[in-house]
Amino acid sequence: QNSPFGIDGSRAHRAMYTVETTSNLDMADVVRKAPALPIEGSACPWDTGAVAVSVDPKQDPNSKTLWRVTVRWQKAQGAEGDGPNPWDKPVLLRWNGTELAETWARDLEGKAFVNSAGDPFNPPPMIIRPMPILIARVQAISYSHRAAVKYGNSTNSDTWLSYPPNSWKALFAVSNEQRGADTSYWIIDFRFILNFDFDKGVGLWHPTLVADIGNRFVEAAAGVGDEPVFAKDKNGIASSRPIPLDTEGVFGPKGGRLPPVLLRSGDVQLGFIPFTTLHRRPFANLLTEIAAAGEGL
Asked: Is the backbone of residue 148 left (phi > 0), alpha (psi -120 to 50) or beta?
């Protein structure tokens, strides 16, 4: 991408897409109609004041089904600089920060938080963690509150702003209507939190804390055959017996896989069932959907 947010004022952008066809007989006119590609005249995903002026497919020299498609955008009202309309502005980014209080059952190395007697804190301690906040400002002729609700409290399923999937969490949009003598427009600020751990493969938004908290209630035990014997806690009280489910949360053969205990028959430590608590959505068109005409207020 060139000048991805039009900071230089040129409002000229370029992006390359990869398209794989289902037939080696497909030609450029078929490739241009791929659902994920922008079409000529459509708004730029990251700059609503620019429109697509060309969609140019080129076949990969080493493949009959792989195509590289270059899309170019130019300023919607010409190349003579910003027009008079307030919404004809590029997306503006700025960084801010905040501090969040989180409940942590374990530290970053997986060690449980315990007191001097070795007992886990109940409830777990609150940890103050600073968070970088990205604010994307869009000036648009309309505001889609439906899109704001759709993307709020979700993570990116695609690569967005050069960061891999699951790196961003969308928070909420703050919008204000502005009116002048002969125009009306919206200023929309959408806030995002950047994941500290995006480079580790497992993001901050992965629900590992749910599993860690559960680990305080079910302890590993020596099993007899395939029948687990659950260990007792420090007070001599036997742990409860959860319903045996597989890792997807459904019953399997003979009642399903056992919960996370150590089995003598295979000496296998099974993991906890994962829980999905956040929606994952593609962020590529998030800002243009927020400013979609005719779909909001």
From this structure: alpha
Does this model's pTM top 0.70?
A: no
Render 61-124 in DSSP notation, one character per residue: TT-SSEEEEEEEEEETT-SSS--S-TT----EEEEEEEEEEEE-SB-TTSPBPB-TTSPBPSSP
> Which one, of 207, 213, 228, lies nearest residue 270 by Cα?
228
The Cα 207–Cα 273 span in angstroms is 10
Provide the Cα torsion 32, 38, 40, 44; round to 10°. -160
Nearest to residue 72, comparing CAs of 90, 91, 56, 58? 56
- Residue identified by tokens 């103050």 is 128
C-alpha distances in Å from residue 296, one per residue of 68, 140, 142, 148, 240: 35, 11, 6, 10, 50
Residue type present at position 277: T
**pLDDT tens across the length of the chain (297 residues):** 444 444 445 678 888 899 988 888 888 888 888 888 888 877 787 777 778 888 899 998 888 889 999 998 887 654 444 445 566 677 888 988 888 777 777 777 778 788 888 888 888 888 887 778 899 988 887 788 888 888 988 888 888 888 888 888 898 888 888 876 566 778 889 999 887 655 554 444 543 333 333 333 333 333 334 444 444 555 555 544 444 444 454 444 444 444 444 333 333 344 444 456 778 899 988 888 887 654 444
Token pair in block for residue 104:
């942590």
Count of alpha carbons within 13 angstroms of residue 230, beta-carbon side: 17
DSSP, collapsed to helix, strand or coil, labels residue 173 as strand
Residue 247: count of CB within 10 angstroms of its CB: 13
